[in-house]
């Protein structure tokens, strides 16, 4: 969901919930450096010389850098070392509330004028303009066009206003209370309830555990304007603030302006000390077990806390490389367990990463299968114990170094096309935490010099220093019905001791020496070539009938993206075969390819920058992915492999089936899952292909049928069109296309997808789902029907959606204080039939749902009767033009556009009329569009309401 104005950051805290994400280790992303001499190793690393930095006499810091990616844009960040941890008891939640108030009136932009002004300048609220508040920081971000002097001037004025000139009008404060309380309501549920219970424990009852950024209802409902003014006055001061400016600007001019604008920021007469809070290590072990009736899985997580590794000096950076290598290897070991025939848990892992309040944590976690907590926990702990006892192997380390260096090389190659946002984030961390930001060339050189000298013993030492039996917290989270069977602390400790006493075998690093493909492709030919100068594309026809569209670009130096599709998909199979067809591509991909099982494939691809995935959707099948120019041949090898040599693996199949069933066991404890299943079923007219997952559906999947369908879908590639966009050398890619694509099998069947006749039902439908204990409602309103498909009509529909959304934000949020982020979106399709749908959605207090729906319908009626306000059309047009300006400088846009137009059998030159179509939108045209598509003849209202509301 689109976040408006602000997102509360619990990022650090969410580490405790890292099992809910399968993200790469944090450290893997961090770039590192090396010491050349002992003395140099202890000095702070230099800041990237490409950034202009300085500190004004009042203590205000700035960082300014010229960067043309994207062109004609500049990103401003106002960074404040001010967060919820600085609140006193009467201010809990006001650091975040203050962030909201910065959008509700400043000296130069009273009331809501700031948001409105920016929208008129083409800046999208929520997507572009945003801010966040966490424990230790509040950050405001504003990316704006830099080619218009007036917008640029006002952008700087906004940053200056945010620094110290928020109005804090009592009336506006009262209006914003409801919005913040609604934001808080959206966060309620099982995760939040459990978090409230475990955070004090894992945060060692430190100040952080009493200062969750969202605050307390009591303060948010009752605080006096003086209380927030005191917070603002005490903390919004120049010594805790920095302006970061990166973009297509003149650095000298910008520095002059910053000096002129920010030198008069005042320090308070009495400066409160900005205490650096920490989570103190106690030397104690802790244990906490929490159950919740809406929890869907059982999780065990062990945190072993230790002082944080800062990243200021060369020797600290060297240590962070060692960590990065450790986490890569550990991650690969745990990933391999998941690829066993019958994985012993749903998910598991271990890594050493940042925590909060000056601490890092080595954490081991397992998401258990129902009733198998001991087995799952022991498996996760066993792998860490194996690493501790035997260390990693030299071949694992070699691979990890290779992939580490490859990531750095990839970043270095993109040096001149690095996005401004990425620089902004580096300087933000440099200002907030002192995290070194010496620049990619500097880092690359040092990593390259440093990696060869890192010995296996240094990486293995991490387990010796990190895995401890003190400062160790064990946390169990589970569905309520498992309460009685959850182990006590002593039992978990016994499990750990049991594993430590086991007779373990060292890890055996099996690497395949075979070629990836069992059969080398028999190259075909390019039989025709045409060029489209206006579009900048070359289209090739291959001897097997496949078409290839190539669009070379200079947007990125190290990126090629591609996709291919042909008509067919799961629409060609009966309902009885549907589950096998739907799951075929995902499962077959997870079996590996050619001669390699998935683990061998993982190792083969280590150090390469590419991804390739086959897919079978409802109406098409194909393949999609990305690569660097250097690894393009490997990407082709994989495409050919997936389409001609899929693997079949009965053991892995059984494992996936077992895990999928285990994952479903408690899924319907989650109110959102129940609501989504119902919504999907209703919108799909209860067709079996649209209803939610179930054990019975999993039982319908057959390995043989799945594999046969997969092979059948890719047996005839003649209907396929490939699109490649990026840093392509046409002459160099031709031999690869002849070898790997012109060699794909072709039968010229001319397959077409079938119309299954599934669409949103007609008429008026209202349905409530009663599930969940929190006083919160989710409302979805849907209009749908036949669509008059054309490029111009799609633009009219988009304008209607945007004008409606702008009004819903103004009315439901700003005027009625009833919601946090109402949204609207519109869909349209050309095939199998021309249809549209418009969705409006928001979360709210169940008591307000009727009133807010009535307000929504009232706004719709106003658009149908009078048309939208001209100013909202102007905002939509400015946003469309500005976002298109940057989109057309990305490879992803062109890949989506070209392949989308081909799939829809539409003209590839449709972009030429874009501006004309935009300009054809008027108050009258949107009014007519609203009358046509929001008539209410086909209207569905679905609501998720608390269980308690069902009785009433
Ligand atoms: Zn907020």
UniProtKB/TrEMBL annotation:
GO biological process: proteolysis
GO molecular function: metal ion binding; metalloendopeptidase activity
InterPro entries assigned to the protein according to its UniProt record, in alphabetical order: Metalloenz_LuxS/M16, Pept_M16_N, Pept_M16_Zn_BS, Peptidase_M16, Peptidase_M16_C
Co-factor requirement: Zn(2+)
Record-annotated Peptidase M16 C-terminal domain positions: 223-403, 709-875
UniProt record similarity statement: Belongs to the peptidase M16 family.
Signal peptide: 1-23
Domain Peptidase M16 N-terminal: start-end pairs: 66-183
SUPFAM superfamilies: LuxS/MPP-like metallohydrolase
Keyword Hydrolase: yes
Protein name: Zinc protease
Entry superkingdom: Bacteria
Keywords associated with the record: Hydrolase, Metal-binding, Metalloprotease, Protease, Signal, Zinc
PROSITE patterns the record matches: INSULINASE (PS00143)
């Amino acid at each position: 969901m689109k976040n408006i104005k602000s997102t509360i950051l619990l990022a650090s805290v969410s580490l405790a919930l890292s099992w809910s994400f399968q993200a790469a280790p944090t450290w893997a992303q961090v770039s590192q450096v090396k010491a050349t001499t002992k003395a140099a190793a202890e000095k702070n690393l230099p800041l990237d010389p490409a950034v202009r930095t300085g500190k004004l006499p009042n203590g205000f810091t700035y960082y300014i850098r010229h960067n043309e990616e994207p062109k004609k844009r500049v990103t401003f960040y106002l960074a404040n070392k001010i967060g919820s941890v600085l609140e006193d008891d009467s201010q809990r939640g006001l650091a975040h509330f203050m962030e909201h108030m910065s959008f509700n009136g400043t000296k130069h932009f009273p009331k809501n004028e700031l948001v409105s002004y920016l929208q008129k300048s083409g800046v999208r609220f929520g997507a572009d303009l945003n801010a966040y508040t966490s424990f230790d920081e509040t950050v405001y971000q504003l990316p704006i066009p830099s080619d218009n002097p007036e917008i640029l001037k006002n952008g700087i004025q906004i940053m200056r206003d945010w620094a110290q000139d928020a109005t804090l009008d009592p009336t506006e404060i009262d209006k914003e209370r409801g919005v913040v309380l609604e934001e808080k309501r959206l966060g309620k549920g099982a995760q939040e309830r459990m978090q409230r219970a475990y955070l004090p424990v894992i945060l060692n009852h430190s100040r952080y555990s009493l200062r969750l950024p969202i605050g307390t209802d009591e303060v948010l409902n009752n605080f006096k304007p003086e209380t927030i003014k005191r917070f603002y006055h005490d903390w919004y001061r120049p010594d805790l603030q920095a302006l970061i400016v990166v973009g297509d600007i003149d650095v000298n001019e910008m520095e002059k302006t910053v000096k002129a604008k920010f030198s008069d920021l005042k320090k308070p007469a009495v400066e409160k000390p900005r205490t650096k809070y920490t989570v103190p290590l106690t030397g104690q072990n802790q244990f906490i077990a929490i159950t919740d009736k809406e929890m869907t899985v059982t999780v065990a997580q062990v945190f072993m806390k230790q002082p944080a590794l800062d990243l200021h000096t060369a020797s600290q950076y060297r240590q962070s490389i060692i960590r990065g290598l450790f986490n890569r290897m550990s991650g690969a070991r745990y990933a391999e367990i998941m690829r066993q025939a019958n994985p012993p848990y749903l998910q598991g892992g271990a890594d050493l990463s940042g925590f909060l309040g000056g601490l890092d944590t080595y954490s081991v976690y397992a998401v258990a299968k129902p009733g198998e907590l001991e087995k799952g926990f022991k498996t996760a702990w066993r792998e860490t114990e194996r690493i501790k006892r035997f260390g990693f192997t030299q071949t694992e380390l070699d691979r990890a170094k290779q992939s580490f260096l490859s990531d750095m090389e990839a970043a270095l190659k993109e040096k001149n096309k690095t996005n401004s946002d990425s620089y902004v984030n580096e300087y933000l961390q440099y200002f907030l935490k002192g995290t070194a930001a010496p620049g990619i060339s500097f880092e690359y050189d040092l990593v390259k010099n440093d990696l060869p000298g890192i010995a296996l013993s240094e990486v293995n030492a991490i387990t010796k220093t990190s895995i401890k039996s003190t400062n160790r917290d064990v946390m169990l989270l589970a569905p309520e019905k498992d309460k009685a069977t959850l182990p006590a602390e002593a039992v978990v400790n016994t499990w750990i001791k049991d594993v430590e006493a086991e007779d373990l075998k060292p890890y055996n690093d099996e690497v395949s020496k075979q070629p990836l493909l069992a059969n080398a492709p028999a190259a075909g030919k390019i039989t025709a070539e045409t060029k489209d100068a206006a579009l900048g594309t070359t289209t090739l026809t291959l001897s097997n009938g496949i078409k290839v569209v190539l669009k070379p670009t200079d947007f990125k130096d190290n990126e090629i993206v591609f996709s291919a599709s042909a008509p067919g998909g799961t629409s060609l199979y009966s309902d009885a075969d549907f589950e096998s067809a739907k799951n075929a591509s995902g499962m077959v991909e997870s079996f590996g390819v050619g001669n390699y099982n998935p683990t061998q494939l993982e190792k083969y691809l280590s150090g390469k920058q590419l991804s390739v995935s086959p897919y079978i959707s409802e109406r098409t099948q194909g393949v999609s992915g990305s690569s660097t120019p250097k690894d393009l041949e490997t990407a082709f090898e994989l495409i050919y492999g997936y389409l001609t040599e899929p693997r079949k693996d009965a053991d892995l199949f059984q494992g996936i089936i077992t895990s999928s069933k285990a994952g479903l066991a408690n899924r319907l404890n989650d109110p959102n899952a129940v609501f989504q299943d119902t919504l999907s079923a209703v919108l799909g007219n209860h067709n079996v292909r649209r209803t939610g997952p179930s054990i019975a559906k999993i039982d319908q999947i057959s390995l043989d049928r799945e594999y046969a369908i997969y092979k059948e879908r890719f047996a005839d590639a003649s209907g396929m069109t490939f699109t490649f966009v990026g840093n392509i050398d046409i002459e160099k890619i031709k031999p690869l296309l002849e070898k790997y694509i012109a060699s794909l099998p072709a039968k010229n069947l001319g397959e077409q997808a079938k119309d299954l006749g599934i669409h949103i039902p007609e008429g008026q439908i209202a349905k409530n789902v009663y599930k969940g204990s929190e006083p919160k409602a989710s409302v979805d309103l849907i209009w749908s029907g036949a669509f008059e498909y054309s490029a111009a009509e799609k633009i009219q529909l988009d304008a209607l959606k945007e004008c409606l959304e702008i009004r819903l934000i103004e009315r439901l949020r700003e005027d009625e204080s009833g919601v946090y982020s109402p949204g609207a979106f519109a869909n349209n399709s050309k095939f199998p039939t021309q249809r549209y749908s418009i969705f409006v959605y928001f979360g709210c207090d169940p008591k307000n749902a009727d009133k807010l729906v009535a307000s929504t319908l009232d706004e719709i009626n106003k658009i149908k009767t009078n048309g939208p306000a001209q100013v909202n059309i102007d905002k939509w047009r400015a946003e469309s033009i500005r976002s298109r300006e940057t989109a057309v400088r990305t490879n992803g846009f062109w890949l989506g556009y070209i392949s989308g137009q081909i799939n829809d059998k539409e003209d590839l030159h449709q972009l030429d009329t874009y501006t004309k179509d935009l300009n054809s939108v008027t108050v009258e045209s949107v009014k007519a569009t609203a009358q046509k598509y929001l008539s209410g003849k086909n209207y569905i209202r679905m609501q998720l309401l608390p269980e308690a509301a069902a009785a009433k």
